[in-house]
Amino acid sequence: MSSAVADFGLIGLAVMGQNLILNINDHGFKVCAFNRTVAKVDDFLENEAKGTEVIGAHSIIEFVSSLKRPRKIMLLVKAGAAVDDFIETLLPHLEEGDIIIDGGNSHYPDTQRRYEYLTSKKILFVGCGVSGGEEGARYGPSLMPGGNPEAWPHLKPIFQAIAAKAPDGAPCCDWVGEGGAGHFVKMVHNGIEYGDMQLISEVYHIFRNGVGFTDDEQSDIFAQWNKGVLDSFLIEISTDILRFKDADGQPLLEKIRDAAGQKGTGKWTAIAALDYGMPVTLIGEAVFARCLSSIKDERVRASKILSGPTNNKYTGDKAQLVKDLEQAMYASKIISYAQGFILMREVSHQFNWNLNYGSIALMWRGGCIIRSAFLGDIKNAFDKNKSLECLLFDPFFQQATTTAQSGWRNAISTATLIGIPIPALSTALSFYDGYRTARLPANMLQAQRDYFGAHTYELEDKPGNFVHTNWTGRGGNVHASNYDA
Ligand code: 2AM
């Protein structure tokens, strides 16, 4: 092939790559496909892509020369070395202003590094979070592109055409921000997904073990909740899961071993929160809850010797508890998203990414696992105030947490009294109570640190002025470098 005919090039013909190509083709753009194992190109053209406008290349040179300029090349290959290898392979054949998009599951520091490297080579690099799985890739993913903003006008018509659409028709794709922002935002999305899933699991635990609702009864409650403030994909699928029967007519859910797996993106979010000193407690608890679940054998041994409260059943008004838990889940979700957004705010600030918060909420409204009606309210909050410090400062969410508060506290007391673990629900309330406290007991921490380690402290009326006290009257001058805490 000698002429540049293709609008878009895609490397990586696993299912995600194939489906994205077919999606782009459906929207009237000509795509050229390439893959490390070249045989897969012909295989794809003869099968899944048969009868479409998709073309294939059998070498990098053929691939690159098939693309119209500026070339738009998406990599959908295994995260890690494969991305760097393809970048190196492509570089000698590209020209200034060509665009490389990494649509894989790269960790954001790698994306930031590649962005800086390719900027130095005058190639426009974009790290794009792709959410929605194989089905999303084929019929409408949520796309979170970030990197070099000069690339965006060239990508926008294609990306917004193929992306999922929110219920009001808006595409679930917009420019996220600079550098590694796209993959960072995708990672936070996955962390929030861990949190939402954990909240639903805790409510299920209370319903099943504390109240004694059957799975069908719970499915009815979730179906009802899905018509209100909790309207979301995860509540919808949980409704189906609770209803699903195995071949013997029993709920399949109850036969599934309670040991959760994880692929690491929740953990990455929690690590980023620790690295940047941001209290993203709900995602952290959601990751640890999976860790606790996975030491199943140890828990089974502990369950035989450790006692809980004598009364482990809820004996109050069931309808009231259902209402309280709906409020508790809603308020906890608000906290979790508020935490996710303050993490994004902090990291964006550190890297100068200029994150576009309203658009992020919009991108998550369709096509991805955390899609929900609630994200429309978050979008509205950022539309009203682009530099909103925290969701909890928005009047809508301030009112929502105030309204939810008594049910939230009741639900948490109930679960605590009957001994059902609620790490996510309860950390959300602790965060809320801490966040709304002007004076926390950290003065005690500072005094202790100064007492044993001479780490110094500030006085309330002289912030910025660090002083040390000789608390015991003994010893000489202790220096902060002697001890660390
Ligand atoms: P393959 O078909 O040649 O294995 C998902 O695994 C995609 O990433 C596939 O297209 C796969 O190519 C590609 N891939 C995985 N590891 C790779 C590597 N080290 N170099 C290039 N492509 C790789």
UniProtKB/TrEMBL annotation:
Gene3D superfamilies the record matches: 6-Phosphogluconate Dehydrogenase, domain 3, N-(1-d-carboxylethyl)-l-norvaline Dehydrogenase, domain 2, NAD(P)-binding Rossmann-like Domain
Residues annotated as binding substrate: N105, S131, G132, G133, H189, N190, Y194, K263, R290, R449, H455
Molecular function as annotated in GO: NADP binding; phosphogluconate dehydrogenase (decarboxylating) activity
InterPro entries: 6-PGluconate_DH-like_C_sf, 6PGD_dom2, 6PGDH_C, 6PGDH_Gnd/GntZ, 6PGDH_NADP-bd, 6PGdom_BS, NAD(P)-bd_dom_sf, Pgluconate_DH
Catalytically driven reaction(s): 6-phospho-D-gluconate + NADP(+) = D-ribulose 5-phosphate + CO2 + NADPH
Any Gene Ontology biological process: D-gluconate metabolic process
Pfam families associated with the record: 6PGD, NAD_binding_2
Protein keywords: Gluconate utilization, NADP, Oxidoreductase, Pentose shunt
Pathway(s) where this gene product acts: Carbohydrate degradation; pentose phosphate pathway; D-ribulose 5-phosphate from D-glucose 6-phosphate (oxidative stage): step 3/3
Binding site for NADP(+): G12, L13, A14, V15, M16, G17, N35, R36, T37, V77, K78, A79, N105
Enzyme class: oxidoreductase
Enzyme Commission number(s) from the entry: 1.1.1.44
Active site location: K186 (proton acceptor), E193 (proton donor)
Similarity comment: Belongs to the 6-phosphogluconate dehydrogenase family.
Subunit structure: Homodimer.
Functional note: Catalyzes the oxidative decarboxylation of 6-phosphogluconate to ribulose 5-phosphate and CO(2), with concomitant reduction of NADP to NADPH.
PANTHER family assigned: 6-PHOSPHOGLUCONATE DEHYDROGENASE
Record's protein name: 6-phosphogluconate dehydrogenase, decarboxylating
Species for this entry: Coemansia aciculifera
